[in-house]
Design a protein that fits this description.
Distance between the termini of chain A: 74 Å
Radius of gyration of chain B: 40 Å
Largest interface: A-B, 47 and 59 residues
Strand content of chain B: 15-25%
Oligomer: heterodimer
Largest sheet of chain A: 6 strands, mixed
Shape of chain B: rod-shaped
Helix content of chain B: 25-40%
Order of helices and strands of chain A: EEHEEEEEEHEHEEE
Number of strands of chain B: 6
Distance between the termini of chain B: 99 Å
Number of helices of chain A: 3
Chain lengths: ~180, ~190
């Protein structure tokens, strides 16, 4: 076992070499490892957020805001060939951009990198809340047709969450957009 | 007789062989040198690398330890993958497995009617279960805090958007406007 030699000794005196018993320590370590292995969570589950935009009567508790409506980015994914990014202020269309729908599929993962890049560029030009002291986020609304598979919907939401911005008080950059899933 | 000693007697040239410790006139030294003694049966096992290894494993497992526990995911559901994700939270779980809709494992309707009708519709069973869950939450929390209205959807990646929209709309009508989709986390690609 592990010994600690501190020299000296002899001459009828008690030995100053002491043995440290390592067996209980090893037992403890093995027990901790067993516990941690049994309770370990190996799957990396996460969530991607989307608010609901459902038609219905206005909320009576909410005050009516007299200020002009903010610009919102509407992402249309109804076309087979392209996405359409529409900046709207209320009912007024401010800007429209078409992005080719080119999915990149790798091992059952669908991604739209071109759309993510374009959304980042658009936010830098048209985003209303880019300052770090501004606690509000820009709003993006996703419109999809009924046949689109769910993995494509998630890929587009993931692309909308790609642009990041600094936020005062936050430790790391936060997504520039808050996504709303339109059920219309 | 010649007084001069021979070359051999002067030990200028000696027979090759082992020299070390051979001239010490002690019996136990000679015994050890000739290799006559038995090998000791005591073997010292060096435990330091083993303990180092165990400590490294403990540190790694502690770093990856999660207090939230495993989230039950139906094996028939293949979740989509995404990069820009948030950590999971404790909320009612609505799973869409094949044609079944489950709320925390309890059957809450079927998707067949939606697919056959090919139009958006409210799923009454799901609506009632979510509504009762919301009322239960309010009773437990005694109106001391606002209802978070969060629900997590576990949806297979090939489910059509029509079904997702119907479940989404039903959840919103039942008082759960903050919907999260469960995904498999992809590592950050950087840049």
């Amino acid at each position: 076992m592990a010994g600690v030699s501190v020299g000296g000794g002899g001459g009828g005196r008690r030995s100053v070499d002491s043995d440290l018993n390592l067996v209980p320590m090893i037992d403890l370590l093995v027990c901790i490892i067993s516990f941690l292995l049994i309770t370990a969570v190996w799957s990396q589950m996460a969530r991607i957020n989307a608010d609901a935009q459902v038609p219905g009567p206005p909320d009576p508790d909410k005050e009516i805001d007299p200020s002009p409506p903010e610009k919102m980015l509407h992402v249309e994914m109804r076309g087979e060939e392209k996405f359409t990014l529409i900046w709207k202020q209320g009912a007024t269309v401010v800007n429209t951009v078409d992005v080719p729908r080119k999915p990149v599929e790798t091992e059952s993962v669908v991604r739209f990198p071109e759309l993510a890049t374009k959304i980042s560029e658009e936010w830098k030009i048209n985003g209303s809340h880019r300052d770090a002291s501004d606690k509000k986020l820009d709003q993006a609304v996703l419109h999809t047709d009924n046949k689109t598979p769910f993995k494509d919907v998630i890929a587009v939401i993931d692309a909308i969450y790609t642009p990041k911005r600094e936020l005062a008080g936050a430790n790391e950059p936060v997504p520039a957009f808050n996504v709303t899933f339109s059920v219309n | 007789m010649s007084k001069s000693k021979s070359f051999h007697d002067q030990k200028m040239i000696v027979k090759p062989g082992r020299r070390l410790l051979h001239f010490i006139p002690l019996r136990f030294v000679q015994k050890r040198v000739k290799g006559g003694g038995k090998r000791s049966v005591d073997i010292a096992l060096n435990l330091t690398p083993m303990i180092d290894f165990l400590v490294v494993i403990v540190v790694f497992l502690l770093m990856s330890f999660s207090t939230s526990g495993e989230i039950p995911v139906d094996k028939s559901i293949r979740l989509p993958k995404a990069e820009n994700t948030l950590d999971m939270l404790d909320a009612p779980m609505v799973a869409i497995t094949g044609s079944q809709i489950l709320v925390d494992g309890t059957p809450a309707g079927s998707t067949r009617a939606i697919e056959e009708a090919n139009r958006l519709q409210r799923i009454d069973e799901l609506f009632n279960i979510l509504k009762s869950k919301r009322e239960l939450w309010k009773q437990v929390h005694d109106n001391s805090q606002p209802f978070p209205g969060v629900v997590v959807l576990q949806v297979d990646r090939d489910v059509p958007a029509l079904v997702v929209k119907s479940v989404f709309q039903t959840a919103a009508f039942a008082g759960y406007p903050n919907v999260s989709f469960m995904v498999d986390r992809l590592p950050k690609s950087g840049g």
